[in-house]
Amino acid sequence: MDIYADEGISGTNIMHRKEFQRMIADCVGGKIDLIITKSISRFARNTLDCLSHARQLKQLTPPVAIFFENEGINTTDRNTEAMLALLSSVAQGESENKSEAIKWACRNRFSRGIPLTPTWALLGYDTDEDGNMVIVEDEAEVVRMIYEAYIDGSNCREIAEKLTALGIPTVKGHKVWPAGSVYNILRNEKYFGDVLMQKTVTPDCLTHRTVKNTGQERQYVMHEHHPAIVSEEDWRTVQGFLKTRRFEQRRKIKPPPPPLTLIWSRRGKTKGFLELDPSWKARNLEEVRAGIAAHNNKRMRG
């Protein structure tokens, strides 16, 4: 007998429910013959997850039953799947309604100029007892150094390597700085005092996957919301450099056009003809003729 509980984890998706996954693995391993849960919503708020796992456990040898106390349903009983499907869809609907209510509350909050500004993963800032953002000077110096280095010509990878070599930890305490962390600091408008709200959206409450807001929802900007670490001028200078340097980098790594490739066809409808590599782009007719002549000379020498 054991207790499996994912505290504070949504039941709409089993991906992050480690205890739920452990329970299913123990069922497959023959350690469990009966699961007792308070209700369908405690087991899973996703209709597909609920039905698929109930069927999976029922088909084991010996089968594993799930007993839902509130609903009085045992999955090994006959004719219970239709009732289970109905009640699990109701549980999923409740989660979807709750998700929409939370989204509405956030949008209403943003429209009134009240942003959500967690600082636990924001280098250079902390939150005081009144919920206001305050500067952590030691961390702020690191942020300023990142901006100054980028304006002076260093790229994100070089800055990350320098911070790692200096032994400066990331905001999450990691010893190695990824270039992406430096890039995110350079892109974050909070460092010059502004807050852009609703940068990302969650289209589906079942997957919890967030995507970049490219127009799906209205965004809100609040200027001078908190003390700035870098000047707005430096921040906008960096944004310009991020665009131009990225464009220049793409131009640098653009592969050269492939050389002319000629193949003497020996079979099929093209037998006796020279085939050109379709990826090759001729610059002029003389280049094609020169390539064919060189190919013929090579064949004669061979």
- From the spread of the alpha carbons, the general shape counts as extended
Please count the beta strands (DSSP E, at least 2 residues each). Answer: 11
Distance between the termini: 80 Å
Work out the helix count: 9
What share of residues are in beta strands?
A: 5-15%
Q: How many structurally independent domains?
A: 3
Strand order of the largest sheet: 1-2-3
User: What portion of residues is helical?
Assistant: 40-55%
- Say which CATH homologous superfamily of the largest domain is assigned: Putative Large Serine Recombinase, Chain B, Domain 2
Which structural class should the secondary elements be placed in? Answer: mainly alpha
Order of helices and strands: HEHHEEHEEHHHEEEEHEEH
User: Unreliable runs, pLDDT <50, ≥5 residues?
Assistant: none
Mean pLDDT: 83
Q: Which CATH C-level class of the largest domain is it?
A: Alpha Beta
- What would you say the CATH architecture of the largest domain is? Alpha-Beta Complex
Overview features:
about 300 residues, mainly alpha, Rossmann fold, Hect, E3 ligase catalytic domain fold, 3 domains, two-stranded antiparallel ribbon, 11 strands, about 45% helix, extended
Describe the structure in your own words:
By secondary structure, this protein is mainly α. The protein folds into three domains: 18-108, Rossmann fold; 113-250, Hect, E3 ligase catalytic domain fold, CATH 3.90.1750.20; 262-301, no CATH class. It is built from nine helices and eleven strands. The protein is extended and about 75 Å long. The relative contact order is 0.07. The mean pLDDT is 83.
